[in-house]
């Protein structure tokens, strides 16, 4: 089964054709916390930095909604507790 961060990167590249895309799994930093009670090293906390022409003219809230509309079901299915987003236009 592919790593959640790789799957997220694949979805975002396919759907938003980003000019910048960084996907980092920082689950280990939250080991033992409520969102990661089993101290999983991967798959509970993901950080994304993305720039895309698809965000042009959209507010920050609209940009984040665009990403969540693409990833929402995937995040639930995988049990990802936190998605930290930094979005920007081209």
UniProtKB/TrEMBL annotation:
Coiled coil: none annotated. InterPro entries: BolA (IPR002634), BolA-like_sf (IPR036065). One of its GO terms (biological process) is iron-sulfur cluster assembly. Belongs to the BolA/IbaG family. This is BolA family transcriptional regulator.
